[in-house]
Design brief:
This protein is 36% helix and 28% strand. The chain is α+β, with helices and mostly antiparallel strands and 394 residues long. The protein has a domain at 5-72 and 96-178 and 269-351: FAD/NAD(P)-binding domain. Strands 6-5-14-15-16-13-17-20 form an 8-stranded mixed β-sheet. The chain has a 6-stranded mixed β-sheet with strand order 8-2-1-12-19-18. Strands 3-7-4 form a 3-stranded antiparallel β-sheet. Strand 15 and strand 16 form a beta hairpin.
Length: 394
């Protein structure tokens, strides 16, 4: 088998990259070790930055998002029993779209099949090689009982934090920057109509809580818990009681209760691999960086990575230019580190650290009081939350 770009991973990064390359006339093959059902049903992020929304629309894969996604012009910050709204659209002229990552993936898979370009699910024993020498890079895998060897000009490692591409690098060729937080999120998906038209971030004496949604009938909620929390200790009633305690405000607002459809515990960490290019292998998305979900940046960083990479590859093939490929890592990392800073700041402002004293809590309250009373501070939050403008489009 032979292609121009071999893509490992059929998450949002790999699928979007494959689609952008198709629009630019570049051939690709996508190889994924999970099944299609797993990829499409895994509930993950759902907040799309303004630039990500525009990129999906320009790429022709945003029609369902425009119909079913929910436009959010702001967000609520809650503390000491009161909600304070940050008006993104007034402050920056930008807004967010709430549309589940799994729905984005479904749209991209449909678009991929419509192109007729290869997409291989359930691939086994996937490996990458020859990306740092003179020979053509190679992706090997087994599918339907047959061994395959895919030769390509470039490999895009879009296979997530636990994928095979980053571990295939020589350890001395890259450096990892890592931070693990001493808490986690217990998240639920509930069959309950949203009681707020926008997200609510809450700081409570007992810890952080977040009210979000996925549709007009389904809510997504989170509460801070211990890093090694066992779900066995959390009955549905206990989860709802704790969410109500942390989220309810003095004006009578509280989340609507309903049957819990899914629940799970997500660890909190920050990670960056530098650089993001190794010869003819490029890392993108979670394979290169992880952010705590407080800032809603994971999917959006992946979209920004592949937008930069697809344009660089187009210039390579059309104009034999190498400069954008050479600049790929530096350009992406500038955005990644700014997103890391913002995600760390949001996480630090809303979470109670185990063992902290009351000084720390009072400091958090003072930070929130400042952020919700200063237009300059609100504008800074709004600029970062709605996202930096994408450096490239179609």
């Amino acid at each position: 088998m032979r292609t121009q770009v071999g893509i490992v991973g059929a998450g949002p990064a790999g699928l979007l990259l494959g689609h952008l390359l198709h629009l630019r006339g570049i051939d690709s093959v996508i190889v994924e070790n999970r099944g299609r059902e797993y990829v499409t049903e895994r509930v993950r992020a759902g907040v799309l930055e303004h630039g990500t929304t525009e990129l999906l629309i320009q790429a022709g894969v945003g029609q369902r998002m425009l119909r079913e996604g929910m436009r959010h012009s702001g967000v609520y910050l809650a503390f000491q029993g009161r909600r304070h709204r940050i008006d993104f659209e007034d402050l920056t002229g930008r807004w967010l779209t709430v549309y589940g990552q799994n729905e984005v993936v479904k749209d991209l898979i449909s678009a991929r099949y419509a192109t007729g370009r290869p997409l291989c699910f359930d691939a086994e024993d996937v490996s990458v090689s020859r990306f740092d020498g003179e020979a053509r890079p190679c992706i090997r895998f087994r599918s339907d009982g047959q061994e395959h060897e895919l030769e390509c000009d470039f490999i895009a490692g879009c296979d997530g934090f636990h994928g095979i591409c980053r571990p295939s690098l020589r350890r001395e060729s890259w450096r990892g920057y890592d931070c693990e937080y001493p808490f986690a999120w217990l998240g639920i998906l509930a069959n309950a109509a949203p009681s707020s038209d926008e997200l609510v971030y809450s700081l409570h004496e007992r810890g952080f809580a977040l009210f979000s949604m996925r549709s007009s009938s389904v809510t997504r909620l989170y509460l801070q818990c211990a890093s090694e929390e066992s779900l066995d200790q959390w009955s549905d009633d206990r989860i709802w009681d704790e969410l109500e305690l942390r989220l309810s405000t003095l004006d009578g607002w509280r989340p609507n209760r309903g049957p819990i459809l899914q629940k799970g515990v997500t660890g909190m960490r920050s990670f960056v691999a530098e650089p993001m290019r190794f010869g003819r292998l490029f890392l993108a998305g979670d394979a290169a960086h992880i952010v705590p979900p407080t800032g809603a940046k994971g999917l959006n960083l992946a979209a920004a990575d592949v937008a930069v990479l697809s344009r660089a590859l187009e210039r390579h093939y059309r104009e034999n230019r190498q400069d954008l490929l050479n600049e790929y890592s530096d350009r992406c990392l500038r955005r990644v580190w700014r997103a890391q800073r913002f995600s760390w700041w949001m996480t630090s402002m809303f979470h109670r650290t185990p063992g902290e004293n009351e000084f720390e809590y009072k400091k958090q309250l003072a930070e929130l009081q400042y952020v919700t009373s200063s237009r300059a501070a609100m504008t800074s939050l709004a600029e970062n939350y709605t996202g930096l403008p994408l450096e490239v489009g179609l």
